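For the sake of transparency, this paper describes our internal protein records without simplification. An entry from our holdings is shown next, in its original layout:
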Amino acid sequence: MGSNGPFLFDDVETYADGVAMRGIRSEGPLRVEGNPAAGNEVGNRDYNDARYVGGGGGGALVIRSSILTIEDATAADNIQCTLTAGYQGDSDGPTDDIPDNGSNGNYALNLGSTVLTIDENALSGACLGILAECLQSNDTTNAYTIECGISGNDITVTVRDLNGAAQDLGGLVDLGTLEIRITYITDA
């Protein structure tokens, strides 16, 4: 495996035991580590081993995948979130009654409930980037797209209709449950 330049993943395949990036398979934890060509190796690694992906900047970075379930909460117009570990992923919750323009536990909604934030405390390390996101399960009768990003070390999630309009999650969960797979990189 080469170590020159960045690696882009355009496809994620799901397996019974987790997620594998296209062309990368792992017998154990998949880690992104320093670029040996740049002289910033981390430990004594065999960079031909498919568990390691050459990166830059040194330090071990970990690719993780988790499933975020967003569903109706006990209180009206609130949401409940559960983070379930996928491949090396994180688990948190369920956390009930996350209100509009407020927070509960490791989750927060903005005013209008269009952006959900997963706090870094729910994650194993600071989130440094999003590799992929997909709507894994949609119990509503409508089609949506998912947009994930990072804010500080947190993950942000926005659900959009096919016209690009951000959806009010408090109202959306009245139609059904959403499961979103998020594949991301953390610093630990």
User: Anything to note?
Assistant: Helices lie at 169-172.
